[in-house]
Design a protein that fits this description.
- The complex is a heterodimer.
- By secondary structure, chain A is of the alpha/beta class.
- Chain A is built from seven helices and ten strands.
- Helices cover 36% and strands 28% of the residues of chain A.
- The longest helix of chain A is centred in the last third of the chain and has 18 residues.
- Chain A starts with a strand and ends in a 6-residue tail after the last strand.
- Chain B is α+β, with helices and mostly antiparallel strands.
- In chain B, the strands form three sheets. In chain B, strands 2-3-8-5-7-6 form a six-stranded mixed barrel, surrounded by four helices. In chain B, strands 11-14 form a two-stranded antiparallel ribbon. In chain B, strands 12-13 form a two-stranded antiparallel ribbon.
- In chain B, helix 13 packs antiparallel against helix 14.
- The interface between A and B is medium-sized, with 36 and 28 residues.
Chain lengths: 233, 406
C-alpha cells in the first residue's frame, strides 16, 4: 500500500514568548490509502490542529505535509483551494452545509467548482443521495433536515468530488448515539466499498471502536500509534 | 448559476436588514433624482424667465452698447441685419429696440427709467411684454401710447389714460427732448427690478424723438430651437458680428446666470456624492454584519475548495442584488412621487431668485436620463462599497474561523 499522507516533523505553535503554546510538536507519521484512522486524545491535545494542517486549512511553523506526494506548503492559496476541492473531502462537527442551498445543491456545489457538466453533476448527486440513504430528500434545505441527515449530506458532498482522503473533525459530536452509529457505519461502508481514506479527529468512543488505526495524541505529540485489531466489523 | 442563486437567497436571510439597507439606498436615489429634477426645473425656469421676459435668447447690438447702455452706440442702418434675420430659418422671432435712459413724470411724481422704443407686433412675438399686461391695452402703433411697469405706475400715481411727460436728450446733439404720452397699459413681469425700471413706447416715435432716423440699439432674438441659442456654430453668430456689431446668446449676455447654473449643477453633484457615500457606508456596514454572521459558513466553503476569488464574487453578487433591488424600489417611489409633483408641483411659496419670480408650486419633470443614469451610478457605487467586505470575506482563514465559531 502506498502513502496518501506523509507528515514529517510537523510543528505548529500559537502565541509567542511566555504565552507560546506548542499545539503540534514535531510529529511524524504516515497514513496509507484506504485507511480508516482516528486521531484521538483529550481536549487540547492537538487533534483538530493536526487535521487542519493535513487539510491545508492552517499553516505549520515547521515540518512538512505531503498529500498524495505533494508538499502542500509549496502551494499558493488558489492551488491549495483547487487541491482541497479535487482531492480532499471535509466533514466538520456541525453546520457543514450552506443553509440557503438544498441538499442537492449542497452536494452539487463542489462539483460545480470542479467544472463538471450539469448532466454528470445531476447523476452524481442522485448517486450520492442514494449512497447516504437520502433519496427523495434532495430538495430539502438543511433547516428541514435532522442533524444526522445533515451530516449524511455533508458526507455525500465530501464524497461527490471523488476525493482520495476525507478528513472528518468530530463528525458525530452533535449527534445522538444511534444517529452517530448509523453515520459511522455508512462511512465505514464507503471506506470498504470505494477505498476512500478516512481520517477522523475525535474523542467519540464509537469512532474509536470502528477505526482500524488509532493515533493517540497528548500535548502535541504522538503518544501511541496502534492498529485496532478489535475494530468493530 | 448556483452561486447567483446562493447570493440571491443570502440577501433574504435577514429580511429586516435587507429591507433597511435597500430603503437607505433607495431613499438616497429618490432624493437625488428629485433634487436634480427640482434644480433642473428651477434652472429651466430661470433661463426662461430671463430669455422670455425681455432679454431674448440672443441679441444683436452695436459693439460696446451693453457695457454702459450708451445711447450713442446705436446701429445706424439695421435693414441688412433685419433682412438677414428674416431669412434665417433658425430665427423664430426678433424685436428691434431703442433703449434710452429717461425721466418720466406725472402730475405727482417723477422717476428715472430705461425707456424702450419697440415694434409692438415684433415685440409681442419675442418678449412677454404683451402677456404681462394687467391693465389697459397693448401698443397699437399710435404715437402717444405708453406702457409702464406696475411699480412705476404706483410711484407716479397714474392709471390708464393719465398723462406722462418723458424727458431725455437727443442722441446725437444731446439737446433736451420732451414728449407727452398717455398711459395705455400697465404691465407686471414679477421681478421688482423689471416692474420699476422699464417703460415702453412705439419704435417710430422713439426714433423721431431721439432723432436717429431708422437707427436702433438692439435686436432681441428668439430661436425655433432654444437649445441652439448658445451654440457658437449658429450661422448668425458667424455672419453678423463685425467691428461695430456684436451677436451673442443669452449665456454670453448673462455670464452671472451661466455661473450660477454651473454652481447648481456642482452643488447637486456634491449633495449626490454625500448621499451616496452615506448610503455606501450603510451597505458596507450591512455586508460586514452579514459576513460576520456567516464566518463559519464561509470558512467551510473555503475549506471544501471555494477559491478566495469565489468567496469575493459571492459577496459582490450580494452587493449587486442589493443595489438592483434598491434601484427598483427607488425608481418605483420616484415615479410615484415624480408623477404627483409633475401634476401638482412642489410647493415653494412665493419665491424670487436672480430676478426671476417662481410660481407658488414648481412642477418638476423626470427625465429618462435620471431614471437610467442615477440608478446606474448607485449600482456602481454599491459594488465599489462591497469590494472591501468582499476582500475581507475572501481572506477568512478557515481554521481560525471554524475554531472561533465553535
Amino acid at each position: 500500500m502506498s502513502k496518501v499522507i506523509e507528515i514529517e516533523k510537523l510543528t505548529r505553535k500559537y502565541g509567542s514568548g511566555v504565552g507560546e503554546v506548542v499545539a503540534i510538536n514535531e510529529i511524524s507519521l504516515n497514513i496509507e490509502y484506504g485507511e480508516f484512522t482516528a486521531i484521538i486524545g483529550p481536549s487540547g491535545s492537538g487533534k483538530s490542529t493536526l487535521l487542519n494542517l493535513i487539510g491545508g486549512l492552517d499553516k505549520s511553523d515547521s515540518g512538512c505535509v505531503l498529500l498524495a506526494g505533494k508538499d502542500i506548503a509549496k502551494m499558493s492559496g488558489s492551488q491549495m483551494s483547487d487541491f482541497r476541492r479535487d482531492r480532499i473531502g471535509f466533514i466538520f462537527q456541525a453546520y457543514n452545509l450552506i443553509p440557503v442551498l438544498s441538499a442537492t445543491e449542497n452536494i452539487e456545489y463542489i462539483m460545480l467548482l470542479q467544472g463538471i457538466p450539469s448532466v454528470k453533476r445531476k447523476e452524481r448527486v442522485q448517486e450520492m443521495l442514494f449512497l447516504v440513504g437520502l433519496e427523495g430528500l434532495g430538495h430539502r434545505r438543511p433547516s428541514e433536515l435532522s442533524g444526522g441527515q445533515q451530516q449524511r449530506v455533508a458526507v455525500a458532498r465530501a464524497m461527490a468530488s471523488k476525493p482520495e482522503i476525507i478528513l472528518a473533525d468530530e463528525p458525530t459530536a452533535n449527534l445522538d448515539s444511534k444517529t452517530g452509529m448509523a453515520l459511522l457505519d455508512m462511512m465505514r461502508q464507503l471506506n470498504e466499498d470505494q477505498g476512500v481514506t478516512f481520517v477522523f479527529s475525535t474523542h467519540d468512543e464509537m469512532i474509536m471502536k470502528r477505526a482500524r488505526r488509532l493515533i493517540h495524541l497528548r500535548d502535541g505529540l504522538v503518544a501511541l500509534d496502534e492498529r485496532n485489531s478489535n475494530a468493530t466489523p | 448559476m448556483l452561486m447567483i442563486r446562493q447570493a440571491w437567497r443570502n440577501i433574504f436571510r435577514n429580511i429586516r436588514r435587507t429591507v433597511l439597507t435597500c430603503t437607505l439606498i433607495a431613499s438616497s436615489l429618490v432624493v437625488i433624482i428629485l433634487v436634480d429634477s427640482l434644480i433642473n426645473s428651477m434652472s429651466g425656469l430661470m433661463v426662461k424667465g430671463i430669455t422670455e421676459t425681455i432679454e431674448g435668447e440672443a441679441q444683436v447690438y452695436h459693439s460696446g452698447f451693453r457695457d454702459q447702455y450708451d445711447p450713442e452706440l446705436y446701429i445706424k442702418n439695421p435693414k441688412s441685419i433685419i433682412s438677414y434675420l428674416e431669412s434665417d430659418k433658425e430665427v423664430k422671432a426678433f424685436a428691434p429696440r431703442i433703449i434710452v435712459p429717461a425721466m418720466i413724470g406725472s402730475s405727482y411724481n417723477s422717476v428715472g427709467v430705461m425707456l424702450y422704443g419697440i415694434d409692438a407686433e415684433k415685440e409681442s412675438n419675442t418678449s412677454r411684454l404683451k402677456s404681462a399686461l394687467i391693465e389697459g391695452n397693448y401698443l397699437s402703433g399710435s404715437d402717444r401710447e405708453l406702457i409702464l411697469g406696475m411699480v412705476i405706475a404706483e410711484k407716479l400715481e397714474v392709471t390708464i389714460g393719465d398723462r406722462i411727460v418723458i424727458t431725455s436728450s437727443e442722441i446725437n446733439t444731446n439737446q433736451m427732448v420732451q414728449e407727452l404720452f398717455r398711459v395705455s397699459g400697465i404691465v407686471r413681469f414679477g421681478p421688482k427690478e423689471l416692474d420699476e425700471g422699464f417703460a415702453f413706447i412705439n419704435l417710430s416715435i422713439a426714433q423721431r424723438m431721439f432723432n436717429i432716423g431708422e437707427g436702433i440699439h438692439q435686436i432681441a432674438i428668439r430661436f425655433n430651437n432654444p437649445e441652439l441659442a448658445n451654440s457658437p456654430d449658429l450661422a448668425l453668430y458667424k455672419t453678423l458680428p463685425s467691428d461695430t456689431l456684436e451677436a451673442k446668446g443669452w449665456l454670453a449676455l448673462q455670464p452671472g446666470l451661466g455661473a450660477m447654473l454651473e454652481m447648481t449643477g456642482f452643488s447637486t453633484l456634491i449633495m449626490g456624492a454625500v448621499l451616496f457615500i452615506l448610503a455606501s457606508l450603510g451597505v458596507v456596514n450591512s455586508m460586514f454584519m452579514s459576513i460576520y454572521e456567516r464566518t463559519y459558513e464561509l470558512a467551510v466553503s473555503k475549506a471544501i475548495g471555494t477559491r478566495p476569488s469565489g468567496i469575493a464574487i459571492l459577496v459582490l453578487l450580494e452587493g449587486l442584488f442589493l443595489a438592483l433591488l434598491s434601484c427598483i424600489f427607488g425608481i418605483i417611489i420616484t415615479l410615484i412621487l415624480g408623477n404627483y409633483l409633475q401634476d401638482n408641483g412642489l410647493p415653494l411659496g412665493v419665491m424670487e431668485f436672480s430676478g426671476v419670480a417662481f410660481p407658488d408650486s414648481l412642477p418638476i419633470k423626470l427625465t429618462s436620463y435620471q431614471l437610467v443614469n442615477f440608478p446606474f451610478y448607485v449600482v456602481i457605487l454599491t459594488l465599489v462599497a462591497a469590494i472591501y467586505p468582499a476582500i475581507f470575506a475572501a481572506r477568512i482563514v478557515p481554521a481560525q474561523a471554524v475554531q472561533k465559531a465553535l
